[in-house]
Amino acid sequence: MKILYIGTPVNYQLWKEGKNPSHWLYGACEMEEEGHEVIWTKETVELWNDVKLLCKYRPELVFIPNLNLKAHALLLSFSVLGFIRTPIFAYLHHTPKVTKGFKAFFYRFLLSGVKHLFFLSELSMEEAIERNLVKGDKCSMPGWGADEEFYNRVTKSDNGFFVSTGKEQRDFDILIEAFKRTGASLKIITCKSHAGNNFEKLPEICKEIPNIEVVITENSGDVYPQMINAMANAKALVCPLLQIKLNYCVGLSTIVDAEGLRKPLIITRNPYHSRKRLEPFCVVETVDEWVKAIREVQASSIEISVPSCNMEKCYADMKPVLFNR
């Protein structure tokens, strides 16, 4: 089957080079490995981009790994109106927070142009259904998870330090305070800024704290080999989240890294992560809970069990929806 992928094709090239895991492509790599012809194209905000791609490639299926309603408004509108018959499948990472008014009507209209929506969080899916944005029989949560083949190739060790590699809605203030109190070794790898949060001053803030090292990188998938090397050699991963921004499954990528590497993880409690998925890890909220968790991980040799979610299982759950039509 000819499949038009509209997303971030640079991640495909990085996967082909063995630098990044397949789960960054949300199942499209597995489609190609299974023998489907995947056409890798870039998402843009240009109004006619999607329509031009459909006319050029004539795919049998459209797959969007991270649905941006504004970027795909024309494609979805044409699908609803019947001008486009090609079925559209997509992952919806953020559930719109509207329930009434024109905006809610417009989002409902656009989402009805998708044949099936995949979700990363059970709670996000429930919210979308409760807000009448989508119908329950048009969505599912296949359990997005680690590319086990990728992580099995990574050489792992325990060098005693903790590492934070995220950039999205991170609470570095609470993290720095907790590690100042414990004296445990911490490496922070992040970018200069992300989604309105500026991290450029972190090196200056931490320069007098001998147990904390800060590495500022480019905001690009090219730096993942650097991050995976740090995570593979760490004692544990840490994921401090801004508690005022917990309205979607932020932090899930770090959970997947911890699962794939079988590393301990300390993470801020987020209702969009299921309790079952977080069972192997330390879930915290306050500075005191961070301090306690750091000391517990330091003093133990925790073995992380085989995770319930991985990309192989995820794609197996996606396949019947995508191809048995």
UniProtKB/TrEMBL annotation:
UniProt source species: Bacteroides difficilis
Protein name per UniProt: Glycosyltransferase family 1 protein
